[in-house]
Design brief:
The chain is an alpha/beta fold and about 400 residues long. The chain has helices at about 15-25, 45-55, 70-85, 100-110, 125-135, 150-160, 180-195, 250-260, 265-280, 280-310, 335-345, 375-390, and strands at about 30, 95, 115-120, 135-145, 145-150, 165-170, 200, 225-230, 240-245, 315, 325, 345, 350, 365. The strands form 3 sheets. Strands 2-9-8-7-6-3-4-5 form an 8-stranded mixed sheet, with helices on both faces. 4'-deoxy-4'-aminopyridoxal-5'-phosphate binds near residues 35, 202, 204 and 242. Its cofactor is pyridoxal 5'-phosphate.
Length: about 400
């Protein structure tokens, strides 16, 4: 019989968020669904300048090293050294096709079918897809406003569970908006050392803080961390430049798999990323703009939610990143509200898209980064109309 698909695809479903992109790209829909940076803040002029300058050297149009362009790895190592408060060797950096590829390669490099992976509940869907494709067994641990509940994790471990990896979006959680508190970061690091698992600190949003910077990365507490970050949210997703920071053994395994996955990343976009990341005066000014705009939008969104739904709505405190997690007064599951809402010109991601085993049917992830303040206010008015329409149906 002709094989149509391998067994590893059995448990996989298409990402609800990717599927939503078609719906939300209709011009009449205000989308709070995607995690898209604001289009008008993408630094296209600076990118064009860097591209022209890069292409003066034909090496920018050539293949490059699998682990990434040396200049870019050096810039990333310097950035990470500052952040972690210790020297980071560029040899500990592997540049990947977005941090999504880093997640995928880590799972392939470290997981055998049936291995236990602790994930957050709710969780970043892109991580769930990767761990499911690796045929891992998932153990969900709840996330509250202070991030992953490390006491619940300790209980799981004390009960004999031995995860290979613990995946966490510790800073400005996707979808929950939470920040893992400093004591919980230290607790998680100590658990990793006691029980021998590795932490995947998935951190694409850490630079996007509004009031005060987040606590130091988990990787500053222990070297049992594989740290991922990305140029996607601070420069542009189209560069497809992400990176992982890990010990040399993990880097070597990831590099071996990356040879088979894509030979190497794009020399051109890596050179552009190196130029922009090294230009700290430009980058600091750009980050200040992003923080200011996203912070104002976050507050515009939560103010509009309070005005529309009063005490019937809850939303996570917005301290940075791109999302707030909202629980609405719904007569129907959020997934059933979505087509009604889309018909009225607003889209969001239903909470269940992020579920591992939990029930998030009354919740939704709302992205405040993409739309202007007046659009956010209008989106919430439409959401209110959709909630009422769904309640009457
Ligand atoms: N991790 C998290 C938590 C994310 O939210 C995303 C993007 N939505 C990624 C990783 C992947 O981003 P990229 O591949 O663009 O770096």
């Amino acid at each position: 019989m002709t094989r149509i698909r391998a067994r590893r695809l059995d448990g996989l479903t298409s990402s609800a968020i990717r599927d939503l992109l078609e719906l939300t790209s209709r011009p009449e829909v205000i989308s709070l669904a995607g995690g898209l940076p604001a289009a008008e803040l993408l630094p296209t002029a600076r990118l064009a300048e860097a591209a022209v300058s890069a292409l003066a050297d034909p090496a920018s149009a050539q293949y490059t090293e699998t682990c990434g362009l040396a200049d870019l790895r050096t810039v990333i190592a310097a950035r990470e050294s500052g952040r972690l408060g210790r020297a980071v060797d560029p040899q500990q950096v592997v540049v990947t096709h977005g941090s999504q590829q880093a997640l995928s390669l880590i799972a392939q490099a470290l997981l055998d079918p049936g291995d236990l992976v602790v994930v957050e509940e709710p969780s970043y869907t892109g991580a769930l897809q990767v761990f499911r494709a690796a045929e891992a067994t998932l153990a969900p641990i709840p996330v509250d406003d202070d991030g992953l509940d490390t006491d619940a994790l300790e209980e799981l471990l004390a009960g004999g569970a031995r995860p290979v990896l613990v995946h966490t979006v510790a800073t400005f959680h996707n979808p929950r908006g939470a920040v893992l508190s400093a004591p919980r970061r230290a607790h998680l690091a100590s658990l990793a050392e006691r029980y021998g698992f590795r932490i995947v600190e998935d951190d694409p949003y850490g630079d996007l803080w509004f009031g005060t910077p987040p606590p130091a990365p988990i990787a500053s507490h222990t070297d049992r961390v594989i740290r991922l970050s990305s140029a996607s949210k601070i420069i542009a997703p189209a560069l497809r430049v992400g990176w992982l920071l890990a010990d040399r053994d993990v880097c070597a395994s990831v590099e071996l798999l990356k040879q088979g996955a894509d030979l190497c990343g794009s020399s051109l976009t890596q050179r552009i990323a190196a130029d922009l990341l090294a230009d700290t005066a430009w980058l600091d000014a750009h980050l200040t703009t992003l923080r200011g705009t996203y912070g104002s939008r976050a507050h515009a969104l939560t103010d509009a939610l309070s005005a529309e739904f009063g005490p019937d709505v809850t939303y996570s405190p917005v301290r940075g990143g791109m999302f707030t997690w909202t629980t609405l007064p719904l007569a129907v599951p959020a997934a059933e509200l979505l087509p009604v809402a889309a018909g009225l010109g607003v889209a969001f991601v239903p909470g269940d898209a992020f579920a591992v085993a939990g029930d998030h049917t009354r919740s939704a992830r709302l992205c405040f980064a993409t739309s202007a303040e007046d659009e956010l206010a209008e989106a919430v008015r439409r959401l209110g109309a959709a909630v009422r329409a769904a309640g009457d149906a």
